[in-house]
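User: My collaborator and I are trying to settle a disagreement about how two of our proteins should look. Neither of us wants to argue from intuition anymore, so we agreed to look at predicted structures for both before our next call. Could you fold the first one, then the second, and keep them clearly separated?

Assistant: That sounds like a sensible way to settle it. I'll keep them separate. The first protein:
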Amino acid sequence: MKKILIILLIFFSINNFSQVGIGTTTPSNSSILELESTSKTFVPPRMTTIQMNAIPSPLNGSIIFNSTEDAMYIKTNNGWKSMFFVNNDIILLNKEFTSGNNALSTGNNTYYDLPINSTDIIQNDPTTFDVTGNGTIKILKTGVYSIVAGLSTSNLPPGNKKHIIAIYINGHLYNYLARGTVNNTTTDEFGFSGSSGITVNAGDVVKIKYVLNNNGVPLDAKYINIGITRLK
């Protein structure tokens, strides 16, 4: 008899409290969970981009705070998207490297493809962008686009070092995103980035390349990112 009574109490509790309120005793009938406070916050799970991308099969609608990007992210059919995103077609690639990776080739005055690819996509409209290789994106819609890209190293040695980030379209140099020299006094972190507008046709292939002179001695990458937005 006691078991039956307990089961009935659980059943009626579930039915009587189909809405849960925290900070309120009158949650809306249209809500499953309602939070009310004027002095406390709702804090979602906080994690890096690497940890976010390692979540196995997250449900669409999942929400986290990305500490790498300092932004809220939501899982959609097109992958994780920053909640600051707009309706323009956009692709974002970001990679955070562990130490000792030697990911940056440094032959003097030599252009290399930015070492970031489809495994590093955090947001994409696949009807507009197709990542086909390192630093290489095929544009699927004719239009005007804005491109930003950047890279950083954790162990650039002292001395004058030339650095460039450039856009190539269909194998031809189109524009520079960043270009200059740096003179570290000790081995230290260094990063550079830039932006540019481009006009391309459907089927054009955009490559982001870099130069970082260090006499061919590889350097550790720390962060690398690419962002492309279709403006019109």
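The second protein, kept apart from the first:
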Amino acid sequence: MTDAPATVQAHRSALRLLLTATAVYTVLGLAAGLFYREFTKLNGFEEGMPGQLAVSHTHILTLGMIVPLIVLALEKSFRLSASRLFRWFFWIYNAGVVVTTAVLVWHGVLQVLHADPSKMIAGVAGVGHLLLGAGFVLLLIVLGKAVARAE
């Protein structure tokens, strides 16, 4: 049995989307590491001193590069894109990555500058984490349906 052209197109589109996200987040994650090193050095922030900025590049690389890379492999194996929820997962999850890591960098810059962070930071970070959580739930639903289809 061959797949319908629309399903094949959705699969190819999903693969390209995931690969593009992986590439973009790789560049952003590496740039965040470079920014951390240079910005802290420029502002006399002690090397090795813990802070939000110190973990921003690892968060961007893990959430933005490694997770989509794993989902890409799952898409190749299970055709997750056959579910209408796949696109919902992709965009909600990525919105969560962007919001969460942007707040992480913002808070980290304020720490380096010894500025008082706004209480709003926690609220915005919470929204980012909720989006990430919703994205993971959608991914698990999509994966569960794909595994059931494969059986």
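Some points you might bring to the call about the second protein. Residues 85 and 141 are 8 Å apart (CA to CA). The mean pLDDT is 94.
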